[in-house]
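May I ask for whichever protein you like with its backbone structure tokens?
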Amino acid sequence: KQWYQRRVRGTCIAVVIGGAFQFGFAIGNVANTLPLVLDYYQVDNSTTLYPSVFVAGSPAGALLGALLVGPIADRFGRRGGLIANFVPFAVGCILMGTAFNKIQLVIGRIVAGIGVGVGSGLTNIFISEVSPVSIRGLLGMSYGFVLTLGILASYLLSMPSIVTDD
């Protein structure tokens, strides 16, 4: 019985770390990269709607993903849904990483946002249903803490001094 309890606790902790960190990283990565994107695609920030669309792509995708949480959880289960949610996130990252134009970059943010939205919903459902009562509050609090760590990591890794040759 102790082996099973340790396994459940470890799974819950891994889900919190994976889901919350992914969500935080997706939130934070746009702040430092927006000036680089605008410069790379030669977009005038004052005369175009593109910066707003670029920034809003991920939250728009997350909204769509959050609306899909119920059907995904019912069809694939909580665990299967959590595993599957990384597919749109990975596809979105590939689209962004290989973007040959600014439209593909926005599409990548939307697709990755869908994975973020599904993950943020399913993570909390999974934790509330599976975690032992003795650590449920700790895991709920940890979700917010790890999300914040994801934002911090994203800011640090996207600092211009790290991602440019200057």
Summary: The first helix runs from residue 2 to 40. The mean pLDDT is 85. The two ends are 56 Å apart (CA to CA).
